[in-house]
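agent> fetching stored inputs for the D-glutamic acid docking request
agent> found them:
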Amino acid sequence: MTAHLPIGVFDSGFGGLTVVRSLVEQLPNEDLIYLGDTARAPYGPRSIAEVRKYALQGLDFLVEQGVKALVIACNSASSAAVRDARERYSVPITEVVLPAASRAVSATRNGSVGVIATRSTVASGSYDEAFAVAKHITLTKQAAPRFVEFVEAGVTGGDELLGAAREYLAPIQAAGCDTLILGCTHYPLLSGVINFVLGNSVTLVSSAEACAQSTYGQLTQAMLLRHQPRAATRTFYTTGDASDFQGIGRRLVGGFVTDARRITL
Ligand code: DGL
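agent> prediction call returned; pasting tokens
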């Protein structure tokens, strides 16, 4: 394995671009190949078996492109497929669940941690597993499926979103959580409204940022990190419409989403 190869990043669609944004900030010299399975997104309402099957198809594609590491940016895909992926591929794999959980364990002061995620992630029990060794933590889980719809429609404010946020976050407040994991690729883009409802005393943990830090650590340990300044390349593949991907991607995270190419899995 050589450090000169790109990193493959997989997501169900556009949301993983929040992870790409964190990777670009923290690992600016790395070439990235991103695949968003937009034709079959959202994964959140799908069964765990279905998400696992689709995620492994996407990861197979990225491995065929010759990557030095894989990042499973999607919480639903991480929850359903990380074990199989680790058995199947020989490259280092980073996912989003454990890095976020370990950040939350360090951040909490009162031991009450919340996680909001898709239905599929909540049903998979992946966060319960991640916290199983931290016996002093009480975990409150809440599915927040409409948040994905708001983000993809470009809505980050307004009464309707505020109403949904109040409803989804009520159990988190009732449990007295002082730390909340944003356990879905899209949710960092709603940090504003989430912070508005919960206030500054609740620490928000972005799984995107934690995932990029974990990728940095894994690549450094494997001596695969590119640390010399260079103009890195970022290539975007989608299973859906390429110009839609580019348009929505740019709107969500900005200019580094250049031309996207359509593929079939
Ligand atoms: N990427 C998904 C996740 O992080 C959210 C969007 C979807 O449901 O496909 O769980």
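agent> quick read of the result: The CA atoms of residues 120 and 170 lie 20 Å apart.
agent> awaiting further instructions
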